[in-house]
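Q: What would this chain look like folded?
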Amino acid sequence: MTNVLEAVELVKRFGTNTAVENVSFALRAGGSLALVGESGSGKTTVARMLVGLEEATSGKVVHEGMPTGRGTRRALARRIQMVFQDPYLSLDPRLSATDALSRVLRLHFDENSAARRARIAELLDSVNLSSREANALPRALSGGQRQRIAIARALAVEPRVLVLDEATSALDVSVQAQILTLLNRIREEREVAYVFVAHDLAVVREVCDDLLVMYRGLAVESTTPGDAIDAPRHPYTRLLVESLPRPGWDPARIADRRRELEKEIGRV
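A: My prediction, written as C-alpha cells:
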C-alpha cells in the first residue's frame, strides 16, 4: 500500500528551544497512525507542521510523493485537514453548522446552491447530526455535537488525511466513545487516513493501526497500539502503560518512576 503522507527528519526549533528533533514516519493510504506522548513531547508541533500551520526548521513533509512547504497551504488544505481539541474555539460562534459547511464548500468547490445543499445534508448525515442541530449556533450544542460539526467541516473538502489533535480528550467518556466509533466508520467508508494526536494509549488502541511514541521532542518507539500496551520496549512507553488507571494503580509510584526515567535519560 502506498504512503499518503511522510515526515522526513522533521526538526522544529523556537529560538534556543528544540521542540521536535529528527522525527520521521510514514502514513499508509487509508491507515491510522497515533502520535502519543505527554504535554511538551512535541506531538502537536509535528501535527501543525503536517498541515502547514508551522514551518519546519529542517526536514520535510511529503504528501503523495510531493514535498509541501511555503506557498502550498491552500492546495494542501484540500488534501490534509485538521480537527482541533476544543471545537468551541475552532468553530465560528456566529455560524451554524449549515453556514460553516456552506462557507467551506463555496471556498473550495464551484457548485450551484442545490448541489451545495445536497452536499451539506450528506455531510451532516455522515456525522449523525439532525436538522435542528445543523441550524443551531455552537453555544447551543454539546461538546460532542460541536466536535461532530468540526469533523464534518474537515470532511467537506474530501481530504485524503485527517489530523486529529486530541480530538476526544475534552469530551466525557461516553461521548468520547461515540466520537471514536464515528471516526472508525468514517475511515472505513471514505478511506481517509488519520494522524491521531493523543496522550491516552487506551483511546488510540480503538482507532489506530500504528503508533509513534514521543518524549521530549524525540520519537522513541515505533510500534502498534497493542504491542505498546502488551510489550513496550522503551522506558517511557512502559511509563505510559503503567500510567493507565486500573486496580492497584498508584499515582505516587508513577511520579517516582518518572523521576527515575529522567535520570536514566539524563534530562533532569
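The longest strand covers residues 3-14.
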